[in-house]
UniProtKB/TrEMBL annotation:
Predominant subcellular localization, coarse grouping: membrane
Keywords: Calcium, Calcium channel, Calcium transport, Ion channel, Ion transport, Membrane, Mitochondrion, Mitochondrion inner membrane, Transmembrane, Transmembrane helix, Transport
Lineage: Eukaryota, Metazoa, Chordata, Craniata, Vertebrata
Protein name stated in the entry: Calcium uniporter protein
Ranges for domain Calcium uniporter protein C-terminal: 2-192
Length: 223
């Protein structure tokens, strides 16, 4: 600047030309005096702002919507392609999930049957074969063994033995084992689902009236 301070590279040219400055080239300073601009009146400044806004809206009307329409077509094509790839995987996943759910349910019923059998056997031994004095230590060790089994489950899984969590864990075990046998690629399926969700979200945001600058009725007609 005129007082010897360096001007930042980010300074706008309009700001630089508002005052005199020095231009240093090859260690030689040249004084520059830009022409004085007449100050715009408030009405003229408002008019200029309106013109800038109008030019911006014209540019948007001529270019932005065409770009958004092309982008919408690309997203729709991508969605169709992803859905075609996912269709056989979804069908295979449904079959695997049905099989895993059936095995998990059978395992739960088997557990209930074993517990019922154990209770009936203890009752029969207590009232008909032996007495409670003889069966009491037996039931104690059965209870202690169950506690050890639950603790071993915690040591192996780092989770408390909660029936719903244990059921979900067993379901996933059956699901992944069945997926491996039928060559179902779980990672590829998850990646396709993520890409599909991302494309649908992009399409939803693109179709918002504020982004597309179209009336809501026209958006609904397109949907």
């Amino acid at each position: 600047s005129a007082d010897g301070s360096k001007v930042s590279d980010a300074t706008l040219m309009e700001v630089l030309l508002m005052n005199d400055f020095k231009l240093a080239i090859n260690n030689t300073a040249y004084s520059v005096s830009p022409p004085v601009k007449d100050k715009l009146s408030s009405e003229h400044a408002t008019e200029m702002e309106d013109i800038k806004s109008l030019v911006h809206r014209l540019f948007v009307a001529l270019h932005l919507e065409d770009h958004q329409i092309r982008r919408e077509r690309e997203l729709l094509q991508k969605l169709d392609h992803l859905k075609e790839e996912l269709l056989p995987l979804e069908q295979m996943k449904a079959r695997i999930m049905a099989s895993a759910d059936a095995k998990t349910s059978r395992l739960l019923w088997v557990g209930l049957a074993l517990m019922s059998t154990q209770g009936g056997a203890l009752a029969w031994l207590t009232w008909w074969v032996y007495s409670w004095d003889i069966m009491e230590p037996v039931t104690y060790f059965i209870t202690y063994g169950s506690a050890m089994a639950f603790y071993a489950y915690f040591v192996l899984t780092k989770q408390d033995y909660i029936y719903t969590d244990a059921k979900d864990r067993q379901f996933l075990h059956y699901f992944y084992r069945k997926s491996k046998k039928q060559h179902f690629n779980v990672e590829r399926y998850n990646k396709l689902k993520e890409d599909l969700a991302e494309a649908e979200e992009s399409l939803r945001r693109l179709r918002q009236p504020l982004h597309l600058r179209l009336p809501i009725q026209e958006i609904n007609d397109k949907d």
